Amino acid sequence: MSNPSKTFTQQLKLQNTFAGLGDDFYQKKSPDPVTDPYLIHFNPSVSQLIDLNISSESESEFTSIFSGNHPLPQAFPLAMVYSGHQFGVYNPRLGDGRGLLLSEAHATDGSVWDIYLKGCGPTRFARGFDGRATLRSSIREYLAGEAMHSLGIPSTRAIALIGIRDLIFRDRPELAAVLVRFSDSHIRFGSFEQPHYSNHPEKIPKLLDYAIQRHFPDINDSADKYRLFFREVVQRTAVLIAHWQTVGFVHGVMNTDNMLITGATFDYGPFGFLDRFNPGFTANSSDTSGRYAWSKQPQIGHWNLGKLGETLVSICGASALEAELNEYQPIYNQTFRALMGKKLGLDLLDEEFSNLVGRLFQILSENPADFTNFFRGLSNFPEGYCDSLYNYFPDKKVLDDWLSLYRRLLDREDQDNDLRARKMNRANPKFILRNHLLEHAISKAMKESDHSEIDRLFAFAQSPFDELPECLAKDNFDSQFYYADTPQKFIDWRLSCSA
Predict the structure, then answer these.
(1) How far apart are CA 85 and CA 80, in angstroms?
(2) Which residues contact 133 (CB under 8 A, 6 or more apart)?
(3) Using CA atoms, how far apart are residues 374 and 389, in angstroms rounded to an integer?
(4) Per-residue pLDDT tens digits for 18-48
């Protein structure tokens, strides 16, 4: 093999500023080598952001480096220390057990991005586990990050998905993979909880200073920068969860160690999207109490921020932090209302609008309507009279009554119907990453070593609002399979955290 430092990696501008915090905050650790890694999928839309381009000649070098078999020049791989509240209970024994922050890369626009290897072997935080990630969970995260980003929702993404030949054992022998995650940060709420609960409060200002300088430089010179830091995190979290709610995304594991300070969706485990509108749906089979159900996510976001705020009390004071936290609900409400206005094609967001939304959620919860396809079909009203939507309502009068209210609100705004429909179709996706589609792609990859469905789902994930992804327009396949309502046996399907 030629020296990778002389080929594509010389394009990268790398450093690891997190290492400057000292080893109280991480364990320095190199990835463990793997057997015969192979590239399953490469994401040029992400790699181009950091000027990382590979060719057929450099693909093997890329795969060797980012699977962990060969060191990346200038990198300083480390496992980050953190703890967190899991299902409401504090767990001090966390940290990066199977992943490493490899480096930070500078983008052409001046932004800085973390490159992180997930599934690259055990660290001292592995708690007896093997440090690997299953192929199935890695496929899910790879596609989910791209889908959420394309929906306009802040999210981690991935540069590549790399398969490895080594078998790993969960309930049964499984194929493994390494995910090359790409994120604006890996600093979690739990990164602050670890020094707080381990009685090392002196470490918190050091981490705060780093986080502010790296992620919120505009407040760095303020005398009140720590309070402003919390304000930023509160605002971003409220906006993020409002976006989740309006597309029907259910995270599944909203522990504090899975919440980033930058307000990006992080750690795709047993996630899902609402099929029918079931507010109590939780995507996690372990969540027997429904703590992380769709309807509870705004409340849990507030609760998690409260736990982050507790770590800052000695620095900012409880009253100042409480004042910032009290802004969460108004910001969430305002964002949710604005997003729902776009979904319904309405600009006047007054009390009548709120009543319309409330009544809509009520009738959706009482009838077998597909959440995504209902909103997409609504753009046809009144020209197409939404004929297909009546199939969701055994009692047609229920929908008729709501459409009458909706028509009245549309009429008072006097919008051009064609323009409104186009705007609504940019707010209501035609494609959503449903679990049965993921299972189809995972099955083909695991049983047949066929990655074509991953390629196809990736194309759909990047074009959720289009009638059909342009790159698939000439392919001969049943596109309706990817847009149809979820099959009955997969509705409200829940997954375990096994990964």
Answers:
(1) 17
(2) 98, 118, 119, 176, 177, 178, 179, 499
(3) 6
(4) 999 999 999 999 999 999 999 999 999 999 9
Nearest by Cα to 373 from 276, 251, 249: 276
For this structure, is 257 an active site residue? yes
Tell me the pLDDT tens digit for each residue of 48-105.
999 998 888 889 999 999 999 999 988 999 999 999 999 999 999 899 999 999 999 9
Instruction: Give the separation between CA 250 and CA 300, rounded to whole angstroms.
Output: 12
Span 295-337, pLDDT tens digits: 999 999 999 999 999 999 999 999 999 999 999 999 999 999 9
DSSP string, 309-362: HHTTHHHH-HHHHHHHHTTHHHHHHHHHHHHHHHHHT----SHHHHHHHHHHHH
d(CA 404, CA 381): 11
Q: What are 42-58's pLDDT values in tens digits?
A: 999 999 999 998 888 88
Instruction: Give residue-wise pLDDT tens across range 354-372.
Output: 999 999 999 999 999 999 9
From the list 96, 114, 184, 257, the catalytic residue is: 257
Look up residue 307 and give its two tokens: 């736990």
- Per the DSSP assignment, residues forming a β-bridge with 175 are 167
- Rounded to 5°, the CA angle 198-201-202 comes to 125
